[in-house]
Records
---
Amino acid sequence: MLIVGPSMAGKSRLAAEAVHRTHPRRSTLIPITGKDLIELQDQASIEGCLVWLEDLEQFLTAGLTRERARRLVSAGNILVATIRTTERAKFDVTDQIKPPGWDVLDVFHELRLDARLSRTETALMDRSSYAALRERISVCGLAAYLGGAPKAWEHFENWEETNPLGWARIRAAADWYRVTLDPVPDAVLETVAPAYLPDEHRYDTFNRDKEIQWASGLLNDTVWLLIPAPGKSWRVFDYIQDRITNAGEPIRTEIWAALTPGALTPRAALQAGTAAHMNGRNETATDLLRQALGSGDGQTAALAANNLGVLREEIGDMKGAEGFYRQALDSGDRQAAAWAAYGLGALQIEAGD
């Protein structure tokens, strides 16, 4: 089961309630990161468990493949996962360019959760003592409103003036996630955050420790804007991340420049290459996809070869495209080979072969 919905819509709560009612005695495995799940699967037998995957996209970029997911199911495990609507959309395949993990979603039965009030809920609220709050709640949903999401966004917007370096760190971390679907390493964030400073604060002197403390401090019992992640990295509070993603502002040049081999896993390089292509940065996409291809990482390399074939075809390098398509065909990965066969066939038809 995969529950898809906006940030703070109640995805985890709904999944937990469903699991409690249907499998109250089943052992539950909750890996913190995708790397944890992959290492455990390689070193031990996972059987008869309920495997809980919060924020599924982070597992997909860490190496959870369709074959690994099927192995878990075949061993009698039940997979329960959540993913935000904005992140789920990144795995909708509309052309031949494939992000890592795009085919894993077929293993799940998807359930869509809408944060908006239904007609019945709206009518009940209008008759209650909370009627005056309906307009504000309709913007983000009842759960997000009660959880403090609007207040968090208000803090974030105000900090552009009152805490500009903290605001810049949040913006930079959000854009890194938009590209890689991974938390941003602290060393990278230190480098790219100054580029996000508002122009009027570009040359200010900051109390760095105080600004960082503000950005990563708790706003209430459950919400903070910049959240520590494993491996000395940071991610942005989901609701803020989604608002920034949906705004669709261009990714800064400094983010693309920071996508170096040392900062990315092969799967993250494949994801970032896909994002670069979607943003019209074909040279950056080529570099990132070559990085993923050179990793020798199974399906990652195979998908990178197919995606490089698509890129070369788009710029008119048919010979180069054919070479990459054939690499994907020879990889042994059925999904990548199927798409590469389609691309190669289209090339041959166009050439009159």
Note: The longest strand covers residues 78-84.
---
Amino acid sequence: MNRCIRLLLLAAPLFLLAGFAHANDDPPWQLDGQPTVADLEALAAEGVTLVVNTRSVAETAGLDFDERAVVEAHGMTYLHLPIDRERAWLSPARVDALGEALAANDGKALLHCGSGYRAAVLLAAHLVRAEGMSVDAAIERVGRDVARADLDRALGTP
């Protein structure tokens, strides 16, 4: 057997372990808690083009900076889909708005709230509605524990 082929065969498992085989599986979004100004600047430099804030109006107003202004100053699109801590504003309309924003976005997206939970529920619901994933697959894909009752509310199911 050719020495180069042998080396490639030996090295292939290392590339798989390093994640090279799944480089294109990275989702076009990320979930996080509240970003700082420095975080937003870094995210813009990393190719994030959409920031979706799911914090309530009161929480967003309590920040020590104007998130929309910082996001837009760095060339990113800002979308505020407020969901209060009781998740009363969690609805299929919010899921549809997220879906429209993600579909129109050409780069990566950051979805956040205070801790990332509300953003994860909204994203999981989007994956079920728009991507056709099962509820379990969507929860696994977002990588966070999501309460079924919250996901049901977002999907408009009893």
Note: The first strand starts at residue 29 and ends at 32.
